[in-house]
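Task: complex structure prediction.
Instruction: return structure tokens for all chains below.
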Amino acid sequence: MNIWLIMLAGGLITFGMRFSLIYLFGKFEISETLRRALHYVPPAVLSAIIFPELLIRNGTLDISLGNTRLLAGLVAILTAWFSRSTLLTILVGMAALFLMQWL
Amino acid sequence: MIKSPAMSESKKNFVEGVRSEIPLLIGVFPFGMIYGALALNAGLSNLASQMMSSIVFAGSAQFITAQLVHDAAPGLVVVLTIAVVNLRHMLYSASLAPYLKDLSIRWKFLLSYLLTDEAYAPSILHFEKEGLATHKHWFLLGAGFSLWFTWQVSTAIGIFLGAAIPESWSLDFALPLTFIAMVVPVLKRMPMVAAALSAGIVALLAYPLPFKLGLILAALVGIAVGTFLESHQTAEVKK
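Output:
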């Protein structure tokens, strides 16, 4: 699919969700289960992207000290945990990857 | 121009909305720049990177789209992922609905378009305080518009700077790092950790599936695990 089609469809869906209940006020309610489930969307989707990015190299699982992205990712996880800062996490993670690729 | 009391009241609400948004804008600005640079690096054109900020206008969904386009995921999977990631906007829509119910459809369209996490947060606080006062939707317009404007400008600067970064810097790694920075701070309760871990492990196991379907499967498993564990915990407490 063309990137413009993806953006258009993604944009329409996003707008539709923002508009949905403002428009349907009083006619439709979000169930308690869906409400609860929505809290788990960000960690689930993002982890589903992060794990393969760090652990799969050239199509296969790579859990070794030679996997620089995994090691730099672990450094970033620690940084995020202690600093809670997006910018610092990115900077430290990138710096760790640079260092390991040079060494 | 005649200054009617109604107009100054709307203006006052608008300015208040902008003012309440300022602390959030400081955090959003670098984020928009990072998005612009990374979208470009992921292979999107200047124009597409910039336009996504106004067509989709949702931070995390835009980062994820850049990542998935970089990984050459099929369009349908990208769109489905955007849908799942942005489902939370229905909650905002539901929660603001009673305060916006008497507005014209044009207002509803405009305010829905501007309804992001960052516009929602100060607006709902303001609405809860002000109740059903008439001009309060101008507050949401002020908060939403100032965020929209900041997001467009910061994206443009990011694209401009991103073009100067050489490819040898492996900037594509900054995308998963951004996701790490988003996930780690929310991992405070056990069901959250379980949702993240189960989604991650399923994503690895299901990686060989075609069309990046493993991603969707993994996300659904993670959401189900987290929701189930939370219901279970709540049930335990009630006993």
